[in-house]
Amino acid sequence: MAKIVKADTDQAIGLLHQVNDSFLTSNERAELRCALAKELEQAGNYEAARGAMGDLWGRIGERPALGNLDERASAEVLLRIGSLSGWIGSAGQITGAQETAKNLITESATIFKSLGDERKAAEAQIEIAWCYWREGAFDEARIILGEALNQLAEADLELKALALLRSAEVERAANRLNDALRILTEAAPPVEASADHTLKGKFHTTLATVLKNLGASEQREDFIDRALIEYAAASFHFEQAGHLRFRAAIENNLGLLHLAAGRYIEADDHLDQARRLFVSLKDNVHCAQVDETRARNLLAQGQNFEAERVIRAAVHTLEQGDQHALLAEALATYGTALARLNRYTPARAALERATVKAEQAGDREGAGRAALTLVEELRKHLTIDEMQEQYERADRLLSSSQHRETRERLYQCARYLITARNRRAKLASESTPDFVHQAEETAELLRFVERVAATDQTVLVRGETGTGKEVLARIIHQCSGRSGKFVAINCATLSDTLFESQLFGHGKGSFTDAVEDHLGAVREAAGGTLFLDEIGELRWSNQAKLLRLVEHGEICPLGSGMPEHVDVRIIAATNHDLPTLLAAKRFREDLFHRLTPFHIEIPPLRERPADIGALAKHFIGMMETKYGRRVEWTAESLEALQRLELRGNARELRTLIERTMLTSHGGDVISEEAVETLALRQTTDGDPANAWRGCDLAQEVQRFEGQLIERALRASIGSITRAARLLGIRNHQTLSFMLNTRHQGLRPDKAKLMKGCGKR
């Protein structure tokens, strides 16, 4: 039996009592069930209406149990079950439901015609047209409604009003708003003559919707004001009819209109009323729909945390059901809230899911709007290719949209994309800091850096001293196309007392020595990039002060009582292992996570020897230009550079090459031995072994010793005695011993020596 709640009319409750009368015939009971189901259907309580049909019908697709009912009762049952199949099938997105509904209603119309009941046949025609409307077949719906109107007598004002109202709904759905308004004007007299408050409520609802859409498309504020009046009238009539469900929906629509007009307090009042009504109906689904609107109202007021809390609960509720269109709308709002809380990854996931759910629901417009929202809210965190993919998706889904605001949003996204492309083309023609490299792994790293640069995400760069962290940060800044400056701050030099002043700035007179206004590094970098070098050295007390900037882009300059939002991209760098600092409670975990949407690790030079050669040639060219002299570096000397430990990485390599150039004369040849000797001298802690850490010193000494012996033997034409004398070895037998043991490959071949001497 139907579950009647206080939202349903007194008439429905009365019909329910009559159905239980044991003296009724089967035909009378069936007709009463149909009347009860129709009343509940008009109240929007479709499941209760299905229950009201009792054992006459179970579910969509099942043939009604007509039994021994006469033709009129059978036609009534077929009409009502057909209408309910259409409504329930549409709400649950049941495949084939509209076709089933049309077949049942057509069968009922045929019976009514055979009985000579043109009025009931016309009513059936109106319901068939509504099935086509649900399918989006507006031309078919338009034709069938026209036929139904022609069948109705002039005196049948109520059914004529219903047919005109449905015709206006068809034109509204087809976006022929002026035609819809014309039909509603024609429908007004028969509607006003009717005593049916439900019909009047639906008329004023449709008129309000048409006026609202016309006002938006034609920028007519007077239409919006009229829409508010019509919604208020609809709410009144639904209250008179006892249809709390429709009244609650109207209150939600009023909230939406006030929200669009920027009247947030009025919007909140109507939304609270809508929610109370749906709660009284125990309708969790539509409570969640109202909460979605409430979340949008909160977002419009900048109350992002509260909006996220409200919409998260709404999404959870809608995920339990099968209302894909409502879920898609809620997911889009949820994604917006997350994006504005800087939670970009879950925001993107929610918006992408919203697009998919809307498409599954057959709502191309909703899917396209979700894709647009993704670009609007996350464009600074998308690559150009990702932005283009989402734009093309939105453009495809919205190809037939006539909604002015939606089209303007689409055009704006196209402008975002064009601007980004132009920026990339401009950057490609401009010089950027050169991260000299030859290793393929470094090339791959730079390709990743280019993708990161296209977003506005915070970046953490980690690498040993001298690996080029600041150079990489400058590349990210220039490739991002941000118009502001690149400002670098060394966190290790920021004292507790001057931290806020140096970073956030101060106003004149904010403290004793503040004799003038000071922008601070953050505001100086506005529109650009703030590079926080040595972030691992930042004191614990200052880390909390930095968190708000990283998380919300807000600062509070000294002497100012109000927070200030600054558009600045943050790139941090460190040579520390921050997870180790986290474990030691020397670095805040919340700050670490805010800094690492993108984490770039620069390997030390010793792990990419191919880059050492490329860098060496680059630095040699720089020094030749700087000092105006040319020296020759042998292949062996360049190879020697690649074998060095280079704990100072590129910085140490540059210093070594510069010192070599300074101690050389024009035309000098830089040998392998010269490089090795200078490398030993360049150690910073007085321990020569540090220059060769990671190398086998014994092997290096033996190799160097062998090179000297070989040169001495060549100069003495193989004479061990003369070679020993050249090497400063007093006893030639010592050299012979060395040649017989650790340098056997250098012992002179007597035959070759004699041959060589003969040639001389």
Question: Would you give an account of this structure?
Answer:
The protein has 760 residues and is mainly alpha-helical. It has five domains: 152 residues, Serine Threonine Protein Phosphatase 5, Tetratricopeptide repeat (Alpha Horseshoe); 111 residues; 164 residues, Rossmann fold (3-Layer(aba) Sandwich), CATH 3.40.50; 90 residues, Helicase, Ruva Protein, domain 3 (Orthogonal Bundle); 60 residues. 66% of the residues lie in helices and 4% in strands. The chain has a five-stranded parallel β-sheet with strand order 2-3-6-1-7. A two-stranded antiparallel sheet has the order 4-5. The protein has a two-stranded parallel ribbon with strand order 8-9. Strand 4 and strand 5 form a beta hairpin. Helix 4 runs parallel beside helix 6 and helix 10 runs antiparallel to helix 11. It is elongated and about 135 Å long. The N terminus and C terminus are likely disordered.
